[in-house]
């Protein structure tokens, strides 16, 4: 039992651990379960499913959903909000890759 408790406590620090039920996630975000379902249908977030088939969300997914809600609250249609967030994520990944490549090139350039 102590090993299970330690494992469960470690999951609480994991941003990708699906700790939130749909109802709890909607409460945290101040939105409706239908909004979360719409984000899933748009493939912005894909909740994990419990053994009983219930949707479960991680903190990372809640942050993405909160960004979508922010855009929707500003008048952006949900489909456009999902596309904007997807493009923002792609840009962030490209910038990280570029920064990492520059850093590696700088390291190798010092040797020549």
UniProtKB/TrEMBL annotation:
Note the Pfam families from the entry: MerR_1 (PF13411)
Residue ranges of domain HTH merR-type in the record: 19-87
| InterPro entries given in the database record | DNA-bd_dom_put_sf, MerR-type_HTH_dom
This chain belongs to the protein called MerR family transcriptional regulator
Q: Which organism is it from?
A: Streptomyces neyagawaensis
Q: What is the lineage of its organism?
A: Bacteria, Bacillati, Actinomycetota, Actinomycetes, Kitasatosporales
């Amino acid at each position: 039992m102590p090993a299970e408790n330690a494992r469960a406590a470690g999951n609480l620090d994991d941003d990708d651990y699906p700790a939130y039920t749909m109802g709890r996630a909607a409460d945290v975000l101040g939105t409706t379960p239908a909004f979360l379902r719409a984000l899933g249908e748009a493939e912005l977030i894909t909740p994990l499913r419990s053994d009983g088939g219930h949707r479960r969300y991680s903190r990372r997914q809640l942050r993405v959903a909160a960004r979508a809600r922010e855009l929707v609250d500003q008048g952006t249609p949900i489909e456009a909000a999902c596309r904007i967030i997807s493009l923002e994520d792609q840009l962030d990944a490209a910038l990280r890759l570029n920064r990492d490549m520059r850093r590696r090139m700088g390291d190798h350039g010092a040797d020549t």
